[in-house]
Amino acid sequence: MRYLIFSLLSIFLITAPASAQVIDRLTVENVGAALNAAGYRYVEAADNRGNPLLRVDGTSLGANNFNVMFYACDGDLGCEDITLWSWYSVNGPVDNEFLHVWNDVFRQARNWSRAYVDEDGDPVLTMNINATGGLGSYNLQIMINTYVAEAQIFRGFIGAQ
Fold first, then answer.
1. Which domain holds residue 90?
2. Under 8 Å CB-to-CB from 131, ≥6 apart: which residues?
3. What CATH number does residue 131 fall under?
4. What is the pLDDT of residues 40-56, one digit of tens each?
5. Longest dimension (CA), the chain
6. On the chain, which terminus has fewer CB atoms closer than 10 Å, C or N?
7. Which residue(s) pair with 126 in the sheet?
8. How many domains does the chain have?
9. What is the pTM of this model?
């Protein structure tokens, strides 16, 4: 019995530091590590303000583009917010009334992503992640996995090509 308790305690102590790591700023490194752990590769870029931008291979999402945009950045210290963003090609128009079902009706079952039609008439799915006050690295991974799962469902919902 003592051996079992010691073994379980050892496992907890070995795994606790990795899952207990708190992120207080989002960086290319910690977001990139979460993307890599989810099986995604990315290319680093910068937006028109000089903030980091990750261009992720979104083919498994059925998305034309999948980007991670960083906001409220303070140089090398990192950023407070990121937005996961993807857009999709569909046959025919998708209007905001149709996406109202995704945003409001389905919101009861999942409360993370938001959909809208961009200026070109393409459906877009976004999810914001904020690190203000601290975010566990494991939680960041879960949130990225949640977005990926919702994006795959969204693809079917809008009939993306």
1. 22-158
2. 23, 24, 25, 26, 78, 79, 80, 81
3. 3.30.1460.70
4. 999 999 999 999 999 99
5. 65
6. N
7. 85, 114
8. 1
9. 0.82
